[in-house]
C-alpha cells in the first residue's frame, strides 16, 4: 500500500513537471518594463485581432536611447512557437522606445532556442564600445532618468562620478536621480560641490533648492531659489522655483511668505498655466 502511494505521488510530480515544461515554452508574461529588459530578447503584446507576436532585442543606443531591434514575428500553435520569417530585405528595423511603451515578455532560454536565436545579436558589441568611459556612463544614466527609471540610473552615474565628478552634465543627472527617488540628503552634497566648482550653472540651484525643500530646510531652499531666479533668463523655470516655495509656505501656513512667493509665481507664470492655477488652488484652500 505504501509502495503504491509512493509510485502514485511520483507519477503526479512527473506529470506536473512535464506540463510545466510544455506551458513554459509558450507562456508569455507581459509584465516587464522595457528598461528592465536591456540586452534581452523580448516579445511585445499583440492586438486581439492579430495572430502573431512581434519580437526582437532591446538595447541602449548611447546616443538615441532605448531601442527595440525588431527581428520578426512568431505565432503559438499546438504548444509550439512558430517563427514567421519575413520576406522583406530592408534590413534592421529599429524602434526608439518612449516612456509609455507597453510592458514586454522577456523570452526564456527555451523560447530563444525554439526561435533559433543566438544568445545575443552579433552586432550588440558595437553599441558597447566605450561603455566604461565617463561620457558613455553619464549618457546611460540620462536615458534611464528620461524614462523615470532613476533607480537604474544611479549605477552608471555613480560609477562615472567616482572617475570624474565634474564631467559636464553628470552632477545634474545624479542629483536629479536622487531627488526623483526622494533621497534629498544624497543630492545636497553633490549639488553643493557642483556649485562650488561652477557657480554659474542655474540648474544646480534649481535642483539644490528642491533638495533643501525635500529635507525641510526651508531657509536654505529660499536662499538658493532666489539665487537661481536671479541667474535664470527663463520665466518658466523661475515660475517653477517660485511655486515650489509658495507650496512650502502654504503647508507652513505662513501667509506673509506665501503671498510674497505667490506674487512672484504669477509674475513669471503664463496666465492660466498650471503653476498659476496652483496658486489659485492654494489661496482658495488656505483655511481648509
Automatic annotation (TrEMBL):
Concerning InterPro entries, the annotation shows:
TPR-like_helical_dom_sf, TPR_rpt, Ycf3/AcsC/BcsC/TPR_MFPF
Keywords, alphabetical: Repeat, Signal, TPR repeat
Record Pfam families:
TPR_8 (PF13181)
PANTHER family assigned to the protein according to its UniProt record, in alphabetical order: CELLULOSE SYNTHASE OPERON PROTEIN C, TPR REPEAT-CONTAINING PROTEIN MJ0263
TPR-type repeats, residues: 168-201, 202-235
Origin superkingdom: Bacteria
Listed Gene3D superfamilies: Tetratricopeptide repeat domain (1.25.40.10)
Question: What's the name of the protein?
Answer: Tetratricopeptide repeat protein
> Which residues, if any, are the signal sequence?
1-21
Would I find Cytoplasm among this entry's keywords?
no
Q: Does the keyword Signal apply?
A: yes
Amino acid at each position: 500500500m505504501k509502495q503504491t502511494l509512493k509510485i502514485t505521488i511520483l507519477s503526479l510530480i512527473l506529470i506536473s513537471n512535464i506540463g510545466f515544461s510544455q506551458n513554459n515554452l509558450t507562456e508569455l508574461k507581459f509584465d516587464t518594463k522595457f528598461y528592465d529588459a536591456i540586452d534581452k530578447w523580448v516579445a511585445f503584446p499583440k492586438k486581439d485581432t492579430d495572430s502573431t507576436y512581434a519580437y526582437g532585442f532591446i538595447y541602449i543606443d548611447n546616443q538615441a536611447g532605448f531601442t527595440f531591434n525588431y527581428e520578426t514575428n512568431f505565432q503559438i500553435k499546438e504548444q509550439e512557437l512558430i517563427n514567421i520569417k519575413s520576406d522583406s530585405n530592408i534590413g534592421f528595423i529599429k524602434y526608439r522606445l518612449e516612456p509609455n511603451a507597453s510592458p514586454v515578455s522577456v523570452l526564456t532560454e527555451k523560447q530563444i532556442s525554439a526561435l533559433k536565436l543566438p544568445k545575443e545579436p552579433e552586432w550588440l558589441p558595437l553599441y558597447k564600445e566605450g561603455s566604461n568611459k565617463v561620457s558613455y556612463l553619464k549618457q546611460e544614466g540620462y536615458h534611464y532618468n528620461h524614462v523615470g527609471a532613476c533607480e537604474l540610473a544611479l549605477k552608471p552615474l555613480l560609477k562615472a562620478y567616482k572617475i570624474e565628478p565634474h564631467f559636464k552634465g553628470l552632477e545634474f543627472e545624479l542629483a536629479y536621480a536622487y531627488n526623483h527617488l526622494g533621497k534629498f540628503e544624497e543630492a545636497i552634497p553633490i549639488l553643493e560641490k557642483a556649485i562650488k566648482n561652477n557657480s554659474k550653472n542655474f540648474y544646480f540651484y534649481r535642483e539644490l533648492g528642491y533638495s533643501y525643500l525635500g529635507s525641510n530646510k526651508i531657509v536654505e531652499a529660499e536662499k538658493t531659489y532666489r539665487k537661481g531666479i536671479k541667474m535664470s533668463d527663463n520665466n518658466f523655470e523661475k515660475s517653477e522655483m517660485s511655486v515650489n516655495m509658495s507650496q512650502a509656505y502654504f503647508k507652513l501656513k505662513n501667509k506673509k511668505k506665501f503671498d510674497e512667493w505667490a506674487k512672484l509665481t504669477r509674475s513669471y507664470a503664463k496666465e492660466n498655466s498650471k503653476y498659476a492655477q496652483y496658486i489659485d488652488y492654494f489661496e482658495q484652500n488656505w483655511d481648509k
